[in-house]
Input
Amino acid sequence: MTPVLETRDLTIRFGGHVAVDGVSCAFNKGTLTAIVGPNGAGKTTYFNLISGQLPASAGTVQLDGVDISRDTPAARARRGIGRAFQITSLFSNLTALENVRLAVQARRRAAMPAGPRRTLSEIVTRWDSDPSLQARARDYLADVNLVAKADTPVAALPHGDKRKLEVALMMALEPHVFMFDEPTAGMSIDEVPVVLDLIHKLKARGNATILLVEHKMDVVRSLADRIIVLHNGRLAADGLPAVVIASPVVQEAYLGTRSRAGRKGGAHA
Output
């Protein structure tokens, strides 16, 4: 079976520093893989290479068996790679509903208005004539519990709502691959379950390939089918969550904890 997504010897160098060093991984349909490791391990850089924000120094990214390494981020998104960032990337001068409607429109590949260059507000106004766009956008807002804030400008939304809105945008694009880069970062305790429930639902559909960068190990345990560990840009571990998390080497070096033997040794030092 051809993996939905695969990286082969994926590498990027910044001068003399190798940030991602020959990482080869395959990701299959219907699976959720958590990517963990200490700060600076290369997790977000690896995401940036997959989604096209950074060009690889070596290696390839394959989607459904096709080499997409030379594709732009926009081209990769059209092929089916969806990405939610650590820092939200939204149109702050538009409402929550208008943001999602733009994503719905992009997914439908409807023709952009012809003629002189228009502002986003002018484009949104033109699309008001298609009620199905607004109805579909409201459905995605309902998925993230934001219908009540549909007409609120993004600039006025709290950080947690912006993160939820970004998930709604990604869902509206209907990708094959969902990439979540610390989706719960900056959220309150009350807001976290909403996003986690969304990811659970996406996984339950069985037709999505989900990649998740997350520091919270309780989140990883509850969601992941598989964990890969990056350290100094290299693939340090890859396997079932229980096996990877229980590994003394991984616990001490990559998850910030020490094995019992290590603690005893430290006590005698």
In short: Residues 159-172 form the longest helix (14 residues).
